Amino acid sequence: MNENLRAYVDRRGQKGMDISKSVELFRRYAYVEQSCIRALAGWFLKLPNWETKIILGYQLYAHAERLNELGTRLEELRGGRHRDANIEPGLARIGKELVHAPDDHSFIAGLSWMLGHLVHVYKEHLEVADASANALEIRILLRLQVDVENELHSLQELEKQQYGNSQVNTVHWTQYLEGLIEEAGGISGLGLRSGKSVSALRPEKAQFDWPSPMVFDGRIVHADLGSYQSKLDLPLRDRSIGEFKVYFNEFYAAALLATIIYDSWKLDAPRQYFMDIAHHFWDEVRHAEFGAIRLRELGVEPSVVNMVLFDNSQGLPLLHRLCYLTLGLEVYFMPRKSVRVRYYEQEGDARSQLFADVDWSDESNHVRYGKQWMDYFLKDDARTIEDVQEEIAKYMENNVNNAVGGQKVPW
Q: Which of 178, 242, 369, 405 shows a CA-CA span of 20 to 30 A to 99?
């Protein structure tokens, strides 16, 4: 993991990092962080353990926060814009390859490997930065280093729990990644370059494809969750169980957003767009977690999902998927939110009210995200939001069996 930032600084005699190199390094760090986001979005659908999906959801958002902080600083530095136009092909290859792990264990091991390299280069950057000239970069990197170390520890614990100490399935993948990063001179680009092609080390099964349907382990079955109306007259406990099964099913919304995040990797959009869709994704992951927490508190194991709304969206373009979720499904389900909060308050169920209240607030933000970014992407388009919604409705009518309890698309 020799990055040689110290040699660069000593050679120039500046005892700190000049603007040109600071910009180059932050561009590379940001590219790696965004590559991790793409890889996590992909494997969120493919890893079978739902608890692991939740862990990955938290980690994806952590990467998004770090990416946003790096991007903010790049916009303040002279020459810091246009990151993708300045990423060398060697580093770009690593970012593209990270998601293509041949199996789930290799993916976790590969992501841990990448985080280890990030921790190392962040530490080395901090060691050579000048306390005054590079003060802002130091503050950012101190926060990023601790955050990445925490994520790395979490992944290492997850790997031990699920795979033990076996490295049989991961060694070839991490060796391949190590070869790629040596070709690129490390994350910093300042390390010794091997000069040898490692293409022959690439595992044959290293090709990521979206799973269809979303993968869950044997504890989870795909089944109908019952209608909204059918739960309203149930006793408190039974109604709570029914409604928190629906919360657990928010995995469908997180999955839909995972595909949007994955497909947005190279999208030309403002930095805030990437932050908002990652935030929306994380919220939906947390809502699924709300369901799991409350169901277990009520003595019920999460066991059922209904992915029909996710499955029906997968033939749609990115723009239409974003509209379908934020300005279709979110708006349609919104009137139920306040009813649910007030019901739990009236019944004295403060625990259920807490989760329902947070969910209501989050979903209001999601509609706002949808309106903001649909307006942005349609500003030079002949279509309106209503036109896109009509296109979605026609797609659903012509291509999928979208009737859920007799209902068509929600507009």
A: 369
- For residue 189 the two structure tokens come to 């680009």
Q: What's the pLDDT score for residue 79?
A: 82
Domain that residue 357 falls in: 221-399
Residues 281 and 253 in one domain: yes
Structure tokens at 122: 């962040």
406: amino acid identity, one letter: G
- How far apart, in whole angstroms, are the C-alpha atoms of residue 219 and residue 53? 14
Average pLDDT, the chain: 92
> What is the spatial distance between Cα 151 and Cα 303, in angstroms, rounded to a whole number?
28
Is 289 found in the same domain as 142?
A: no
Q: Is the same domain home to 315 and 174?
A: no
Dist CA 64 CA 36 (whole Å): 9
Q: Please tell me the predicted confidence (pLDDT) of residue 408.
A: 53
Q: Quote the CA–CA distance of 32 and 26 in Å, as a whole number.
A: 10
What total number of domains does the chain contain? 2
Mean pLDDT, each 10-residue run in order, the chain (411 residues):
84 90 95 96 96 97 97 89 80 94 95 96 96 96 97 94 80 93 92 80 89 92 93 96 97 97 93 97 98 98 94 93 96 94 97 97 96 96 96 86 51 52
H or E element that contains 221 = strand 221-222
- In-domain check, residue 208: no
Q: Omega into 317 within 30° of 0, i.e. cis?
A: no
How far does the chain reach from its first CA to its final CA, in angstroms?
54
Taking alpha carbons only, the member of 235, 378, 382, 394 closest to residue 318 is 378
Q: Can you give the pLDDT at residue 165?
A: 72
Q: Are the CB atoms for 210 and 45 separated by under 8 Å?
A: yes
Please list, in sequence order, all residues whose beta carbon lies within 8 angstroms of the beta carbon of residue 340, skipping any fewer than 6 positions away.
Answer: 243, 356, 360
Tokens 């723009």 found at:
319
CA distances from 107 to 77, 154, 368 (A): 34, 14, 34
Q: How far apart are CA 106 and CA 112, in angstroms?
A: 10
Question: Is the pTM value of this prediction over 0.90?
Answer: yes
User: Do 309 and 252 touch, CB atoms closer than 8 A?
Assistant: yes
Burial letters 16-52, b for 16+ CB under 10 A, else e? bbeeebbbbbbbbbbbbbbbbbbbbbbbbbbbebbeb
> What was the pLDDT predicted at 403?
47
Q: 125, 145, 100, 147: which is closest to 17 by C-alpha? A: 125
Helical H runs in 164-226? 171-183
Which is nearest to 201 in space by CA: 169, 166, 177, 168?
A: 177
